[in-house]
Amino acid sequence: MTSLELQRTNLPEGLEELLGPKGLLTGEEAREYGRDFMGEVDNAPLAVLRPETTEQVAEALRLCTEHGLSVIPQGGRTGLTGAGVPSRPDHEVILCLARMNKVRWLDEKNHAMAVDAGCILADVQKAAADANRLFPLSYGAEGSCQIGGSISTNAGGTAVLRYGNTRDLILGLEVVLADGTVLDMMRALRKDNTGIDLKQLFIGSEGILGVVTGAVLKLYPAVAERECALLAFPSLPAVMKSFAIARESTNDRLSAFEMMPQNGITLACNRVPDVVDPVEGDYPWYALLEVSASKEGSGLFEMLEGLIERLMEEGLVVDGTVSSNEGQRAQLWRIREALVEAHNDMPHLLKHDVSVPISDMADFIETAIEKVQAIAPDAMLIAFGHVGDGNVHFNICHDLDTPDGSLATRHKEVTWAVYDLVQEYRGSFSAEHGVGSMKRDALRRYRSEAELAVMEKLKTALDPQGLLNPGKVI
Ligand SMILES: Cc1cc2nc3c(=O)[nH]c(=O)nc-3n(C[C@H](O)[C@H](O)[C@H](O)COP(=O)(O)OP(=O)(O)OC[C@H]3O[C@@H](n4cnc5c(N)ncnc54)[C@H](O)[C@@H]3O)c2cc1C
């Protein structure tokens, strides 16, 4: 018997008939689905199931549960904690939602749209824009990640400041439980206080409680006008003070405030083609700030100019540039994206996606830098991100010119030092990316026994055999 035949005989009977030839992949065709985005986890699945309908998802889950087979729900495989791929080779099947990619309906008057979970996020944004509406969720992976994956990781991104995390953008959900039960909660209501809000259990729980097959999304009026600036700051407290002033003085028009360090911008300019720093001097910190409105002629430019003038007068901002057209705006945002690309392949990269209360942000970053430098003096620190949400990507790597150094052997020590400090501020060791298979130790270290016990009870209640995404989160 060939290994392909062996794989197929390990699958429940009826699966092939249910899903058809395009809906069931094994062997080499299935192989790539076992690799995560960063190439850190690579485990071959037994098979990849690619259903086209909620009914097929339900029947496939029922068959797998009857067979005692573990199932990994998978979206666009852009997750950063190893949560969407098998945790051991040749034992688990992947349930990939990619073929469930239709917009079910869009109701402009109700500012809502219903989509299949496998829709790519950028396609959802476009469908909303075509109806003169905004679906504000936006982040670097939007061309590949699926709305089901965004929901299951409760993704944040660049517009949280104004519109909230994915959780805040979900009106209704359709979920299939491990035993095949379909929970139809596809209501397009902004108010619905009818008992426990079950959909919240599935948002951000990384596919361990159920498979999301559809969602009703909250839409906003389309953005008609926006202004963007890149500002340079003399210090971290100046960045955070400027954020507070910007927030208070822009009449809720502030839609992004992304902090970047000077070393990150230099790396982006040196390592990513076509990225140029438009600010002439060298300053320790920068922020990309955007204001937007749903109506043209809202005086945004004057508002931004007035804000920058005030920040300069107070000595908080030392230099900067304002984009005067869409092309320039895109170039400014390109710096923010390129900053991530530029250090993704640096040696010994340690990523820490953490959050603390906004009021403690400057203090936290400064103390964390000191702590890391004490352990790994030659490490390069790149702290950047959505600081307006109290979220910083506190990434640490080796400079390319440093042959090898303290970071190489002290990964764990550095990470625990950062996380322990986060805990002192009552922050979160995973602000955006979730727990997956990579941060389970941290969950056990920083969440109380009572919290962990409730998580485990929920898991047992909804998936008594522990077949959905085993080895992840708890
Ligand atoms: C370049 C880049 C930039 C990023 N920027 C941000 C950012 O700014 N903010 C942020 O929050 N995150 C960011 N992320 C990480 C983010 O968590 C993922 O991109 C995304 O949310 C995962 O979506 P996906 O469809 O790729 O899911 P996958 O990676 O396939 O899966 C992720 C998790 O969701 C589960 N899952 C997927 N689909 C379903 C479903 N239908 N039902 C149940 N469970 C499901 C999986 O089992 C897994 O646990 C970024 C990632 C990259 C690569």
UniProtKB/TrEMBL annotation:
This is FAD-binding oxidoreductase. Residues 41-222 form the FAD-binding PCMH-type domain. The lineage of its organism: Bacteria, Pseudomonadati, Pseudomonadota, Alphaproteobacteria, Rhodospirillales. Keywords: FAD, Flavoprotein. InterPro entries: FAD-bd_oxidored_4_C, FAD-bd_PCMH, FAD-bd_PCMH-like_sf, FAD-bd_PCMH_sub2, FAD-linked_Oxase-like_C, FAD-oxidored/transferase_4, Oxid_FAD_bind_N, Vanillyl_alc_oxidase_C-sub2. Belongs to the FAD-binding oxidoreductase/transferase type 4 family. Pfam families: FAD-oxidase_C, FAD_binding_4. It comes from Fodinicurvata halophila. It comes from the Bacteria. SUPFAM superfamilies: FAD-binding/transporter-associated domain-like, FAD-linked oxidases, C-terminal domain.
